[in-house]
Amino acid sequence: MKFICCLTFFGASLLSTSAAVFSYQAILTPEAVVPGSPTDDPAGISTASGLAQLTLTTGGVGGPTLSYSLTLTGLDVSETIPRPTLTGPDDLVRAVHIHFGAVGVNDVHGLNVYGFPREDDADLVVNSSTSTVSGLWDDSDANFGSDGIRGAGDSVALSDALTALQAGELYFQVHTFGFRQGEIRGQITQVPEPAQLALVVGCIFFVVVVYARRSKHRF
Ligand SMILES: [Ca+2]
Ligand SMILES: [Ca+2]
């Protein structure tokens, strides 16, 4: 029995002490954009789309991190620095932001990823051949600009957005020169964790099998 207790404790420790990892995704469409301006695409003319894969890690040293990789279809991004922010072709991306806001709601920026008004820091990678932007949001990304005051277009620390993330109240919005206020949008939602569930089931199964074998050998 002592052996079983040790195994159970080991399994529980494995799950509780290691950093927790969660998968998120966002599917970006023109239909999800909430019109807030005549320069949006309320008529649904755009055929662009996007898919973002994100990984949240909590419990690690240095605070939470959220890696993201957003691949766009039917839109272009520029690898040239500085990015074009004043003029460009209709299908060229002017800005990518992660915003606060539930489905159907427009709200302030959480992270400025690409383009106007600022970008994620040195971890941002832009691949124009695949129209992909990827990077890492952490607490060091808080940037309130030269005034030092948090405004609607500033980036915040990831810790200050975790509650919204876990509630499904963050979204990607992609702004192009054709649709400056937003051409495509996608809510960031958690993906079920089959790997973590499998680990728990595996631990329980292992304990049951070992217990059954030991009980059998007693008789
Ligand atoms: Ca960053
Ligand atoms: Ca500011």
From TrEMBL:
Pfam families per the UniProt record, alphabetical: CHRD (PF07452)
InterPro entries recorded: CHRD
Keywords assigned: Membrane, Signal, Transmembrane, Transmembrane helix
UniProt-listed PROSITE patterns: CHRD (PS50933)
Protein name, entry field: CHRD domain-containing protein
Domain CHRD as annotated: residue spans: 20-193
Residues spanning the signal sequence: 1-19
Regions crossing the membrane: 195-212
